[in-house]
Amino acid sequence: MTVFHRNETRDPLPERLHGGVIAIGNFDGVHRGHQSVLNRALDEAKGRGVPGLVLTFEPHPRTVFRPDQPVFRLTPAPLKARILEGMGFGAVIEYPFDRTFSELSASDFIHRILREWLHASHVVTGFDFHFGKGREGGPAFLMAAGAQEGFGVTLVDAFRDENAAVISSSFIRSLLAEGDVAHAAGLLGYRYTVEAEVIGGKKLGRTLGYPTANMRLPAEVELRSGIYAVRFRRWDGSLYDGVASFGRRPTVDSDGEALLETFVFDFSGDLYGEVCAVSFFGHLRDEVKFDGLEPLMVQMREDEKEARALLSGVRPLNDIDRHINFV
């Protein structure tokens, strides 16, 4: 997968990517609503025999304008790129979003970025896409500019789920905050996934017979504390089932920082320093403070049994889920 970062030296896009169909959007979560736009771009690219590309923006605009309120990212940039690769895109262009870029006029965005730099032959985006200083550019502006600059434009209507509700990243974030990872997966089209480096811990789990791979997630992650059935992916692509605890370990360390601690089934070895991924398949229970280690260990054995049973029957939700959690 090729990821390009726009920079001030105006490094040209490789010629093999010229004339592509460009899907434009932030696409945080790459949920089923986003996928309706992205799949339309892929179909258009296939029909034209040209590359399918994604133009997205990093960091999230809200992080720039409200740095004191960092947004809970469903798919940080590396994970987003991996999902888009699984969908079949030839490249992802991560355009740096800063205050200077936010002052760019809609006309300059069209001419300097879409035409001069990307050489777009066609653009696909959502029906409510706005761009340029003060969000001055909208759907009508984009279509008129495309006719003038020589590229086509496809606007995709809002995608609705089986209950006729519009899917949004903010609603998915609220589901994760409630621990409803199953519902979130239905809207994402794949199981919610995090990536982080495995760090050292107090090694209490090892003494209890449940050694864990510990990860520190970004502070803005709003996943509900609790115990989850998960799938664990190492850097080399190998997959393992597991059971994970996210929270502050109230029985043994209630004042500690929130960590994701995964007991990886049927694995022995050193994972320290590896950047691994954990995908959430089911919420088993909330965190509970037990009266000592013995009842905690009894419950951990029950958690393992329940997680193994749940994971034994899982199937891919779609090709993206297969790419992340089954291959």
UniProtKB/TrEMBL annotation:
Belongs to the ribF family. SUPFAM superfamilies: Nucleotidylyl transferase, Riboflavin kinase-like. GO terms for biological process: FAD biosynthetic process; FMN biosynthetic process; riboflavin biosynthetic process. It comes from Rhizobium fredii (Sinorhizobium fredii). This is Riboflavin biosynthesis protein. Catalyzes the phosphorylation of riboflavin to FMN followed by the adenylation of FMN to FAD. Coiled coil: none annotated. Keywords: ATP-binding, FAD, Flavoprotein, FMN, Kinase, Multifunctional enzyme, Nucleotide-binding, Nucleotidyltransferase, Transferase. PANTHER family: RIBOFLAVIN KINASE, RIBOFLAVIN KINASE/FMN ADENYLYLTRANSFERASE. The keyword DNA-binding does not apply. Pathway: Cofactor biosynthesis; FAD biosynthesis; FAD from FMN: step 1/1; Cofactor biosynthesis; FMN biosynthesis; FMN from riboflavin (ATP route): step 1/1. Residues 187-312 form the Riboflavin kinase domain. It holds the Pfam family Flavokinase. One of its GO terms (molecular function) is FMN adenylyltransferase activity. NCBIfam families: PRK05627.1-2, PRK05627.1-3, ribF. Its EC number is 2.7.1.26, 2.7.7.2. It catalyses: FMN + ATP + H(+) = FAD + diphosphate; riboflavin + ATP = FMN + ADP + H(+). It is an enzyme of class 2 (transferase). InterPro entries: FAD_synthase (IPR015864), Riboflavin_kinase (IPR023468), Riboflavin_kinase_bac (IPR002606), Riboflavin_kinase_bac/euk (IPR015865), Riboflavin_kinase_dom_sf (IPR023465), Rossmann-like_a/b/a_fold (IPR014729). The lineage of its organism: Bacteria, Pseudomonadati, Pseudomonadota, Alphaproteobacteria, Hyphomicrobiales.
